Amino acid sequence: MMLTDTFGREHNYLRISLTDVCNFRCLYCMPEDVSFMPSNQLMSHEEIKAIATEYVKLGVTKIRLTGGEPLVRKDADKIILSLSKLPIELTLTSNGFLVDKYIEVFKQAGIRSLNISLDTLDANKFFSITKRDNFQLVWNHIKLLIENGFHVKVNVVAMKGINENEINDFVALTKDLPLHIRFIEFMPFNGNHWQGANVLTYKEILEQVESKFSILKLKDEVHDTAKKFTAYNHVGTFAIISTITEPFCAGCNRMRLTADGKMKNCLFSSSESDILSAYRNGDDILPIIKSNLLSKFKERGGQFDEAYFSMKADEMQNRSMVKIGG
Ligand code: SAM
Ligand code: SF4
């Protein structure tokens, strides 16, 4: 069975947020006035497994766990191990703080690739972005993952006035380390003070890299959100995720479940379907999943168009990033 929307896009990739709680306070993600969801509103680990199983019946072959910070959840190990029994590729996005505690769980679960977020290589700047003094720890954990044979992608939110001068430092890391850097255009969410003027664009990132390195374009797959490159003679790669200036909605295969069990068919969708309440009421959730997908817009949740520059983050109808699950 396949989940196909009205634009003929087949959906086989589900991102599940385990919690909206996080041990970091990234300025682009976590609103200052954040309050967390009460735990009885969150999907339990049994509910996550049961609901994920229904998506797998509908054709999902890849699940990414995210949050908030997925690894702060006390039963994250149980969730990872139980989902690993499904016939899917399982992966995870994390801020890296706790990954050393989970290396064995990742191995047992057959996880091969992880995304770790790191926006700067400067410890002071790391503090000003995340409000936590943990640069060295996160960096050590990235190296630990590499030493343990994981494929490590590093997510870097590219922001003017913040880390725009570090783009080539990140690319330089890929000379000797098998790291896969992904520059992400800064996206608007409620409470994140986004302004069009702070978006470091795909074009600007590429111009900077080309001024210092000779680069090769790598082949992108149809569902890739990232445009991939490598610098000549470098072991790692880099990529740019151009959500804002060159959206990749045409090949979208993603669906999301928030930690409180609401389905979103797009990161920017303003509407949600309450899968968890339906599941708790004993209702069949398959028709709800299908009808949610049929309401998917062609591009960016139907919320903003080419004039991104004049968008106001607080006028969008959406949750904050930390409550959606990135
Ligand atoms: N806590 C984990 C982490 O930081 O990787 C997982 C959740 S986080 C919401 C997932 C990804 O979304 C991170 O790579 C983060 O950098 C990215 N992100 C958060 N807010 C963003 C924004 N406003 N624009 C672009 N990317 C954003
Ligand atoms: Fe936490 Fe990740 Fe958001 Fe930073 S980006 S506040 S680490 S959820």
Find the structural class using helix and strand composition: alpha/beta
Which CATH architecture would you pick?
Alpha-Beta Barrel
- How many alpha or pi helices? 10
Distance between the termini: 27 Å
Can you summarize the main beta sheet?
A: 12 strands, mixed
Task: Name the features.
TIM Barrel, binds S-adenosylmethionine, two-stranded antiparallel sheet, alpha/beta, binds iron/sulfur cluster, 10 helices, globular, twelve-stranded mixed β-sheet, single chain
Blueprint (SSEs and pairs):
Layout: E1 3-4, E2 10-11, E3 13-17, H1 45-57, E4 62-66, H2 76-83, E5 89-94, H3 99-108, E6 113-117, H4 123-130, H5 135-147, E7 151-158, H6 167-173, E8 179-185, H7 202-212, E9 215-217, E10 226-231, E11 237-241, E12 254-257, E13 262-264, E14 273-274, H8 275-280, H9 286-294, H10 321-324
Parallel strand pairs: 3-4, 3-12, 4-5, 5-6, 6-7, 7-8, 8-11
Antiparallel strand pairs: 1-2, 9-10, 10-11, 12-13, 13-14
Helix pairs in contact: 1-2
S-adenosylmethionine (SAM) is lined by residues 22, 28-29, 66-67, 69, 93-95, 117, 155, 157, 184, 186-187, 189, 192, 321-322, 326.
